Amino acid sequence: MNVMTHRKPSGLAILLAVALALLGSPALAHHSFAAHFVIDETITIEGVVTEWWFQNPHTRIYLQVTNEDGEVEEWMAEGSGPNVLHRRGWTDETIQPGTRLIIVGNPARDGSNTIGWDSLTYEDGTAVGP
What we know:
Blueprint: H1 11-28, H2 33-36, E1 43-53, E2 60-66, E3 72-78, H3 82-87, E4 100-107, E5 114-122
Parallel strand pairs: 3-5
Antiparallel strand pairs: 1-2, 1-4, 2-3, 4-5
């Protein structure tokens, strides 16, 4: 007859398992803002909102911006996560398509039409959001 015995894990085995789990945590951590945006440069864009994306992991505003040559370009402005903005009073209704916005923020490192926003204002200079 084959009898299997089960031993309880030793304290050392548990400690090792916890240590390995904690060492793996940084790999799951959030990426750095500086990895995607030039933090020592600020740009301003102005355009008309086509879509407001109030979803994780980051809120996004898609808009049409007329460049210096008079051509319309599609831009994406990335903001904080919806949980952060929600605590500040924002909702999925805070920004509406068709709204003209002025956005100040950091340009994308890859040169794409992407900005990490610092501030959003309406044409009249009023801040967006509560």
